[in-house]
Amino acid sequence: MIALQDRARREGGNAVVNIRSYYKKNEVNSSSEFECGAGAVMAGVTLEGEVVTLK
Predict the structure, then answer these.
(1) Domain-by-domain residue ranges, the chain?
(2) What highest taxon heads this organism's lineage (predicted)?
């Protein structure tokens, strides 16, 4: 989420909308859930979204 926030600032926006997770070719588009991978040492998730400017 911090990376999405940083991206929005770099691109001149102030919000990221339509956030979805993408893991092993499976996209999850939900306002309350995401899919990630977890192993013995680390976990990972890819989040995608659209940078916008809200008033």
Answers:
(1) 2-52
(2) Bacteria
